[in-house]
Specification:
Length: 223
């Protein structure tokens, strides 16, 4: 899972993901759950395929929510459960997929016996395009619309790098730990993720090779 990441600035997002210039609310330098963050989706208001930049809450608000402020966490979604879990199955089935641009993201490493935050960037120095889902929730009392999104994760128990993250469960053996990883989408696959069928998108739900990552303790030079 991921609970902290750093988005690129607006100009970088517009340039790298080929999105037209527009006025958008600003977002924090570091994004945490329930804070505002940018995401990229297929434009809802044009017939032909275009991308649009949206700012919404990191923590998807499902259609059945009674209020925008949730009492449970929805900033991460298990990719293996998207088709069945009520919170995410409608956005997944409707193709409401998005790209979450991230210059870096952070994960906790407990190998020393205490939490040491690690920062993850790409080895090629480009930003991450992380897989996500979005939803627009309407307040029935006011008519106000709330944009929101969630970041997808995948099992990382066998990944040489990502399996080292997060606090181990002392009740479980080394091969039974539920380690998770975000899902990077390569730039060449962004269109497939945003406008492809569910089957085409599902083919992109996989772990990234180790050599894609540059990682190390936060504040230190990553390798």
């Amino acid at each position: 899972m991921c609970n902290r990441y750093t988005p690129p600035d607006e100009a970088a997002i517009e340039r790298l993901w080929h999105i037209g210039r527009s006025q958008r609310p600003i977002w924090p330098l570091v994004t945490f759950p329930r804070a505002a963050g940018p995401f990229i989706r297929r434009h809802r208001d044009v017939v032909d395929y275009q991308r649009e930049l949206v700012v919404g809450q990191w923590g998807l608000i499902p259609w059945f929510a009674k209020q925008a402020k949730l009492t449970y966490s929805t900033n991460n979604a298990r990719s293996e459960e998207l088709a069945a879990k009520p919170t995410f199955k409608h956005p997944w089935g409707r193709g409401q997929r998005c790209i979450i641009p991230a210059q870096s993201f952070d994960e906790p490493n407990w190998e020393s016996g205490k939490n040491v935050w690690w920062t993850f960037t790409r080895a090629d120095s480009q930003p991450w395009s992380l897989a996500g889902l979005w939803n627009t929730w309407t307040d029935k009392a006011t008519g106000e619309q709330h944009e929101s999104y969630t970041m997808l994760t995948i099992d990382a128990d066998l990944h040489p790098l990502m399996r080292r993250m997060h606090k181990p469960d002392p009740k479980l053996g080394p091969d039974q730990q539920d380690k998770r990883s975000v899902i990077p989408i390569e730039m060449r696959d962004v269109d497939q993720w945003l406008e492809g069928t569910v089957e085409q998108a599902s083919a992109l739900l996989k772990l990234a090779p180790v050599d894609v990552f540059s990682a190390g303790p936060a504040g230190a030079a990553v390798t």
